[in-house]
Amino acid sequence: MHPEQRTDWYQELIAVLLAGQPEDWVLRWSNELQTALAGWGGPPPFRLMHAWQAETVLPVLLEAGIEGARGTDLLTLQQLHRRAALGLNGRRGEWLAALKAILPGLYRQAFPYASSHARAHEIALDYATAPANTAMIAEHFGDAKAYADYYAQLSTEANAIAFADANSRAHARIAAGVYADNDARLYGEICAGATRVCALAAAGRQDAGAHRSVLKKLAEGLSRCLIESAPAARGYFSGEQHEQ
After folding, report:
1. pTM passes above 0.85
2. DSSP string spanning 113-180?
3. Could you tell me the superkingdom of the organism this chain comes from (predicted)?
4. Distance CA 168, CA 21 (A)
5. Rg of the Cα trace of the chain?
6. N or C: which end of the chain has fewer CB within 10 A?
């Protein structure tokens, strides 16, 4: 068991969830949130973050699917969050193993593939059409577009792999410590980036509207967790809803 922390971690989270959303929806959601917070009589406990992860974030990722991750990998992480929501924190090694199974695919899906490919293609075309390079390009690739297609694909794939590997390694270790130690302060520092990554991965290679739609779903799930668990965390933290 680890000590419970009550901080304003959720304020950092809310700023990300509401970014770019319609003003009328933000106002309605904010009013709903304030009603939920009033039921707590102060900042919600950090265990509520685990409830939100288990009952909102991971179901969204399960529905979207994560490249290279099995459904059972996501369910394992979900169970760890459910236990932590009940005050039974997993050990750091348990969290680390669960996170390592899904984070590489998560970051791979969150990588800005389209914009990176477009930029690489533009750079390659500039190179291929330079007078000093046209003869070499024609000999080896046929024309400038063929070279640009080849370079953009190769470059973007390499960057996506490097991005996923570096970020998943770093985040897995930090997040495992946060979850095992109930470190609400450190969670407040990493939750913005982590939440954006989850939303980008769930939206896939769709437009910004799809990304905002996922963030809206995550925000609605957060307020629902607050409302259903207040006051005094009845119901959710009793364990009745999560014994399987």
Report:
1. no
2. HHHHHHHHHHHHHHHHTSTTTHHHHHHHHSSHHHHHHHHHHHHHHHHHHHHHHHHHHHHHHHHHHHHH
3. Bacteria
4. 28
5. 22
6. C
